[in-house]
Input
Amino acid sequence: MGRGRKIRTFTVMLETIQEKGTLVQNMTDRELRQKAGEILEKLSLDEKIGMIHGAQLFKTAGAESAGIPPLVMSDGPMGVRQEFAPDAWKPVGNNDDYVTYLPCNSAIAATWNRELAYEMGSVLGAEARGRGKDVILAPGVNLKRSPLCGRNFEYFSEDPYLTKKLAAAYIRGVQAWDVAACVKHFAVNNQETQRLWVEVEIDEQVLRELYLPAFYEAVKEGGAYTVMGAYNRLYGEHCCQSDFLLRRILREKWGFDGVIISDWGGVHDTEAAAYSELDIEMSVTSDFDDYFMAEPLKKKILAGEIPESTVDKKVLYILMLMLRLHMIGDEPRKSGAYNTPEHRAKTLEAARESVVLLKNDDGRLPLSKAALKKVLLVGENAACVHSNGGGSAEIKALYEITPLMGLKTHLGGNAQVDYTPGYCRDGGAEQGDANWQETSLENGGGQMQAADAAAAQEMQQKRAALRKEAVRLAGQYDTVIYVGGLNHDYDCEGSDRRDMKLPYEQDRLIAELLEVKPDMVIVMIGGSPVEMGQWIDKAKTLVWHWYAGMEGGNALAEVLLGETNPSGKLPETFYKTHTDCSAHSLGEFPGTDKVAYREGRYVGYRYNDKYRIEPQFPFGYGLSYTTFAYRDAVINPKTGVLSCFVKNTGDVAGKETVQVYRRDTADDAPVMQELAGFEKVFLEPGEEKQVEIAVELYGMQYPEKAAEPSGEKCGAVSAQTSREKAYVYCVGSSSRDIRLTCCI
Output
């Protein structure tokens, strides 16, 4: 292709992009695009091809002749992942890649705190820059459709509003450090089973209402610089090369002018990828020149089968990203830092606010520090570290405070603190085995498999002995604290759980311990809910702790001992069993080659309200060591600000999350209530504050039948309605604890 033709093609392409509204129309952005265009014209075809596919497992090629550096990426979201060899999934073994271990996104969501979400993003962004990264592959904003999804711990919530508000704040925090957040996985990537090829069947209206808003907010309000496509198929297209998702929605409807990156191995065809809006192809294999957008694309361009302008457009977006990050150009770039005391302090604060107190009969908690003399911790999770597992979320933590360490530290020498495991995990690969990624394109993900009969019998005998010892010891201690739940054998990329049952025969262990110690404190660690029916009615206490980062053990100790008042609220429904969840009772999970989202918009609490499902614990629920009273809710229909008064009526200071749910009063309204706003407030004992909450005033349009997939229909959820509506705004402490109402 001649140089004159290249210039004309690029000029037409740039004008076309501007006409479609994908460029922000102000002088600064125009200058940025002009600068990117000038650089683009200096690049050879080989240099441009090198910029649009992986040249290492986490790096593209730069263009040295033009001063263009490679784009360096890293997994998140719980910290910057350790360094890997350029062409193999093997850690290089450096001593300088230990990082701050952040709470998982489910824990961040449980804080219901936008400021903390921003701070966690800021820590991640600073550490990514400190480690020399340009793109951090986080956050994941897929909804928690089923409690069995293996990656739920990486996601925020079952609710699109809570997800989008926290994700946008998180992204702004990351990108404040000249690092690009990469919001993922676009879209409807809600399971690990058959994730590489499963076809998602979903009504487009439901897609718009529930599954796209978090991505839209990430782009429009969070300002995300990059987006990662999903593995699965939607409307007959692989998401990473989908015209419907990437062009009609992301580029044209939403005006996204950032970089679109494939999930690792998510591209399946050279021509489809070239003509799609995908900008960078990444994969898990080391045959980098054989990637679809590498030599195969170059050959088709040289043969005249695909125009070079398809590559120019992709490189333009990449250069614009580099200018925004100050990777190129004259403006200085922020340097970042990692493992700082400030980062650890922020992580501790997030861990504190993520702890959810689910049950506290007779005021069993907090424990009296002065009265504790002999304390026994039972359960493998009391002494287990979790930072080194979970798939691509695993990190190399500088340290991790376990519950056992946290309690010993806080109780000091005045109490005897001992530990017995009570159960053990299955044999096999340890958490943190990165080699699974080498074969991840072959197995495609699945459900966890049961052990063979002989191994199961041997493990059963081992657990029986551990259980017997734990029960024997429990009677010898004044206080017993059980710390169990899940680990990253279950909360893990690449597989989904088969059910919600507690693994390792924990139900039996808990029941037997409660017979000996009826006032035993129970703590569960995990990124997904578990069944509790065999013991919950007998238990006096239950604390949910998540994967809470490097300071998690200290945060838990503070809550148990009353040094911190718990303020976490559930960001998802905790069902009694997975069959109570709509993905299983109405829809399909995990399906086979196809998965039907027949539950429609009835996901999480929306389903529970409509079908009168009584969960174990509802969405938004969480107790405190104090109590709060609400009064006088008023909403301004012009500004969308709802105000009410909240008073701390207890004896200790605490934080309350005031939640606002919008109810459509029409008889044919399909959804009873939807989260429309929230605000967290700190109150001293006896203190009362007026709380102001910005709420979404209007609900969604609900046509009798959703339209067929169409770029014109899909995009930001419309706030317009097809008929006059009256709304009731319900103010409360959870989705099932409404204290006040006001109307528009």
The CA atoms of residues 574 and 617 lie 5 Å apart.
